[in-house]
Each structure stands twice: as structure tokens, then as C-alpha cells.
Specification:
The chain has 3 helices and 5 strands. It is α+β, with helices and mostly antiparallel strands. It folds into 2 domains: 10-54 and 137-161, no CATH class; 63-132, OB fold (Dihydrolipoamide Acetyltransferase, E2P) (Beta Barrel). Strands 3-2-1-4-5 form a 5-stranded antiparallel β-sheet, covered by helices on one side. Helix 2 (33-65) packs antiparallel against helix 3 (134-161). The longest helix has 33 residues, at 33-65. It starts with 9 loop residues before the first helix and ends in a 6-residue tail after the last helix.
């Protein structure tokens, strides 16, 4: 079983935007440089925490303690985030899980039941596993996090402080 995770969706991000707009409107905050920079830093931290805690803790454990192994593909659901369902064995015990294809493994459409793929797992917790090369996933997640903490606060601030055209 995977650790509990919160998924940041468009709805939660939109809710955050609405809350910020109400707070800023209620406080009648003026768009001074200090206010904008301060809100940018707060938003960057919030987005970093929200987005960063989704996959980074799992990837970090796999990066530090993970071992690679081969798994056997049971089935795929390529229309659902390139999902691949697989089985692998650790110390005589079988585990089944799923994840997204790629990251060093073949594309989902190329995988068939019985194909072997690479996975990473934590030896003390084999339920903590993921298909593909963990370093590639880690780097991809860091790039996404960097974009989220730099671009999303700018979009939110623009939405809050933009001037409505006069009619």
C-alpha cells in the first residue's frame, strides 16, 4: 500500500486563489512592491509545500534506500496515465503494484503481459516501489517543483492585483 498522499488539483489551486483574492480584497492590500514580493514568497512556500510533499518524500526514500529489481507486467491501462500493473518478488514473497510506464522502461503501448520492467523498491518496505529509473523521476519532479514555485505565484498575483479596464 502506498503512503497517504494529497493530490493538488485544479480545484484546490483555484480554491487557494479565491481565498487569497478574498483576503487581499478584505484587507484592501495595495499593490506595493513590498506587498507583492512578500505575497510572492508566501505563495512560493505554500506551492512548494503543497506540490513538494506529493511525490518527493517517496522518491527520496527510493533514491536513498531503493534497490532495483525486475517485475513482470500483468496488464496495462495506457489511457489512464500510462498505468502498468506488475508483480515482483523480494525474499520469496510476491508483491503487486502499479505505476506509470516510461522513465527508462518502454512506453506503455509497447508493454504486454509477461514483459519484464525495471522497478525500484525499499528493501525494508517492498510495498514502497515504483516502476522506472528513480533518478529520472526525481529530476523530473524537481523541475516541476521549480516551475510550480516560480510560475504559479506569479499567476496568482497577477489575478489578484490586475487592474480592471475602465468602462
Amino acid at each position: 500500500m502506498r503512503p497517504w498522499r494529497v493530490r493538488a488539483t485544479r480545484t484546490t489551486i483555484a480554491d487557494l486563489y479565491v481565498i487569497l483574492a478574498v483576503v487581499v480584497g478584505a484587507w484592501r492590500i495595495r499593490a506595493t512592491k513590498t506587498t507583492v514580493v512578500g505575497l510572492y514568497v508566501v505563495l512560493a512556500v505554500v506551492f512548494g509545500v503543497v506540490v513538494g510533499h506529493l511525490n518527493l518524500p517517496t522518491y527520496w526514500q527510493l533514491l536513498r534506500f531503493g534497490r532495483s529489481a525486475h517485475a513482470v507486467v500483468l496488464r496495462t491501462n495506457c489511457d489512464n496515465h500510462a498505468s502498468v500493473f506488475y508483480r515482483f518478488e523480494v525474499q520469496g514473497r510476491e508483491y503487486e503494484d502499479s505505476g506509470s510506464a516510461g522513465y527508462g522502461n518502454p512506453d506503455c503501448r509497447e508493454l504486454k503481459p509477461g514483459h519484464r520492467i525495471m522497478i525500484y523498491y525499499v528493501p525494508s518496505k517492498p510495498d514502497l516501489n515504483i516502476p522506472g529509473e528513480i533518478r529520472e523521476r526525481w529530476n523530473n519532479e524537481l523541475a516541476f517543483l521549480a516551475l510550480a514555485v516560480t510560475i504559479m505565484p506569479l499567476i496568482v498575483l497577477y489575478g489578484i492585483f490586475r487592474k480592471e479596464p475602465s468602462r
